[in-house]
Amino acid sequence: MVATQFLERPRLAKKTVESYERTLMPLLSEYGSWPIEICERTVLTEYLDGLSHLAYTTHHRHQAIIQALFNYAVEQQHIKANPIAKLKRRKPDADKGEHASDEAIRYLTSDQLEKMYRAVEVDCRTHAIVRLLHRSGARISEVLSLDLDAVDLEQRKFQVIGKGNKQRWCFFSEDAAQLLVQYLKHYRHPSCTALFTAQQPIAGSVARISYRTVHQNWRRLIAEIPELEGARLHDLRHTFATERVGLMGIEELRALMGHESIMTTLRYQKVTSARAETVAQSALQAIASKADKL
Question: For the chain, does the N or the C end have fewer beta carbons within 10 angstroms?
Fold first, then answer.
């Protein structure tokens, strides 16, 4: 089998092999029984398009590893050409909070948060999701992938598998726990294992709620609020981090956020410094204005 030969190449580090195995396993479980020469570009493109739940950086890694596998197959003369050679990489999706590393971090102010919570409180499920995102700092994809039994309401925590298939604990506040209890009691469909469920309007079947449904509901609820124009659900994660800079060590915050690099976490320190400068300038202007009136 070509994939086995690819993974058993000499001089590959153990962690590299493990990473390759995790990435290739879903592909092999679906197409592993096919002869490699019939895995055409359309098949692989459709497979990669189906990985829409992955962050774009993770998606790039999956694509790169699959391309490396087929490059190896070419080298070993199993196929004549790589079917996904020069395939364009997926671009960041702004609606999911994905952005280039040099883009400024966007967070919600206390005024924006107040207006948003007031708008979503009419929809218990959306309110619970929004509150959980804000209070835990988890990614929207991580929250929507949770099963009910993964959430400890008493200890107010849950475990997620984040980027790089790394597990971490997320912790949430009492107000988020109270909303979850209300949602579980009155609105969640018990026939599905997912924490957040949705029922199809026509078929009536119950399944895990999709990101698209959550985003559409949230967007509809905040549509009439000018201050929230351009806001994203992912901004709640940025808000969580920005609120905690200075209240805990940067390494602790890094662990909570699930960042690979400490440099990613340090970006929030820059945001907090910039926000402090803005507040300080506003305070000075207010003092100066008051002094002029004396």
Answer: C
